[in-house]
Amino acid sequence: MRIAIYVQDMRASGVVRTMIAMARAFEETDEAMLVAGYASGIFGAADVAPAGFVAAAERPKGKVPRLGAVPPLRRTLRELRPGVILSGGNFGHFSLWAATRGLGVPVVYVFSNAMEREGQPWRNRWRRFWSGLLVRGSGGAIVVGANLARSGVFAPHIASGKAVLIPNGIDLVTVPQADGTVPAAMAGPEPVILSIGRLQPQKNFEALIDAVAVVRKTHAVRLVVLGAGTDDYRAALIARAEARGIAGHVLFAGTTDNVYPWLRAARVFALASRWEGSSIALLEAMAAGTPIVASRTAGDAADVLDDGRYGLIADAENPQAFAAALLRQIDDPVMPGDRAQAYDAPVMMRAYHAMLTKAAAGARARAARA
After folding, report:
1. Is the pLDDT assigned to residue 278 strictly greater than 90?
2. Which of 181, 200, 267, 367 has the fewest C-beta atoms lying within 10 Å of its C-beta?
3. Do residue 143 and residue 213 come from a single domain?
4. Domain hosting residue 125, numbered range
């Protein structure tokens, strides 16, 4: 089976890292190709090997990159002629949907972000409509978090078998062993609170900065953030840190292709997201053995942490409450233990492969009847 896995670009995100691992795993039994709308990002062909890699375009095109990706992506897919396509993340669904119109290739969409977001009633309505439309016209759908599976958008499709719940996982076999390496940005006498994620409002770094300002009233700590974003948004976050009097103790460190040395050097991993599906960074923090504080709104974080058994859950919009959880994890941590074992990637990979096989078989059966 020729499988194409689509991502919008090659940024250092949890979605891209997961889809790279997926392509490499599928290459053991099938012909797998990672297809990127744009080559821009930290990863490339060497990271995807032995699976194949192709980028439809080198860099974002036009004022609306999702639309600009469509023509070159369509040409690329025509040349590849895959038997089935996996659309790896919400961000790329539109480009792939538009590029595959009339090609007759079954697409399985992965949904990893919440449909409902506070203060966005009209956009929430559009997300529900658009997501439902995608699922109905697809070869199948995968939702990565129990909170998504319970939503009104996906629950009926899960009941019918058109969609399935497959929790995120990470390949624990390939987790690098601790070798004592400490990134220069993590060195120093102050304990580090580390957060990982794109610099965008979803990740709620504003609330995390507020909570760290509260922590610093009693504990000398630093906040380090791994993730890329726009210069304007980074500047706004720096201005917020300045307003809270902690600018000298907050570092936006960019991106890395290996988060584990950073996680192991951190005293606490913090996930303050306003919404998530199922955070890969959270699973990586558990695998690294780093104490965790996650927001109540961070997707299925409460399920993953078993309501506080393997890490703390707190209200990120309450700086005092989130700071109290951070302080607890600094002084008397609740450790993740072996919880990551429940999210080992092979189980996830087999479930994804089964869904893709089902979608490809269904497409062949429909073609035979036509």
Report:
1. no
2. 367
3. no
4. 2-169+344-369
